[in-house]
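Structural prep section.
Before we set up the soaks we want a predicted structure of the protein with fructose -6-phosphate in place, mainly to decide which crystallisation condition to try first. Input record follows.
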Amino acid sequence: EKAGFEHFMMKEIHEQPKAVADTLNSVIRDGKLDLSEIGLEEEVIRSISQIYIVACGSAYHVGMAAQYVIEDLAGLPVRVELASEFRYRKPLLDPNGLAVIISQSGETADSLAALRECREKGIRTLAIVNVVGSSIAREADNVFYTLAGPEISVATTKAYSTQLIAAYVLALQFAKVRGEITVEQCDSYIKELQTIPDKIQKIIEDKERIQWFAAKQANAKDVFFIGRGIDYAISLEGSLKMKEISYIHSEAYAAGELKHGTISLIEDGTLVIGVLTQPELYEKTVSNMVECKSRGAYLMGLTTFGNYNIEDTADFTVYIPKTDPHFATSLAVIPLQLLGYYVSVNKGLDVDKPRNLAKSVTVE
Ligand code: F6R
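Run finished without errors. Recording the tokens verbatim:
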């Protein structure tokens, strides 16, 4: 069942190149985007004034990354909301808005309630769902199925990765239909997306280096993940992976927020993980890492090959292959999944079934 792996989580981490490729290939014909099966008409895409992304947990983190990509490529305003907040705050929705509900299981109670709320208010709804025929898939106006296959481990990995792909594809489709990018630009983004599975594979092949680092960090009490923009969205997911399976307290901070309070928690030896995949924000985040270091932090840097001067600052560095910065989340999350996994294994914890958690949260 686990195909020779010790845990489902590790098996599912290894299934990511295929899950990502399958999801991408399901919407590409002859090198071009083809979303006809999803059925969001071009006329509708042109009329959208606002996107509301609503989800829980890791799916919400996908939404955070998607917000940057959709706003930047398609020029459409995006709000990302936690389903459990959205459903109770009596949201004022633009009638030309599009609600995008992201859910692996398609059964998360708060996400389903948020979807119903949007439908009651007459807003068009699109679900990004993994489980075929699930409640959210059945009730949404349109469905973009991720092709991750069954995910057993409570901590999501491959479903998260396929949700990101769905979000990128929607961003590109919206951008193309609305004339924000040319057909040629769209094709070249697609070409780049098609390289993501191999790049994920390469990162996974280097897992021993993360395993070694995880063994050294297994006794950490607190871990802080910092980044800006898309790197903040990646930090949120890295932090959740760490806390849910290794039971180490962790937090993700937008790097610029540190000095507004959190930096007082940095002590001698506190692990701070800086995520630096976005060229425009690189120097800013490095300077936040330096501030942490001067207060005693032990620094891990997660950045792109070529940014070797990070080694002047970070004590340990993990490099990911180059890609278009919009898509960097797909690569940078992999070492963070591996880090959470190996810390958990090192502590002898139940990786696939962490305490107090269920795979599908059907209660509020
Ligand atoms: C974390 C994790 C959860 C889910 C969340 C939403 O690893 O798996 O945070 O992402 O419970 O679940 P779905 O996607 O089924 O709505």
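Observations: Residues 56-59, 103-105, 108, 111, 155-156, 240, 244, 360-361 surround fructose -6-phosphate (CB under 6 Å).
Flagged for discussion at group meeting.
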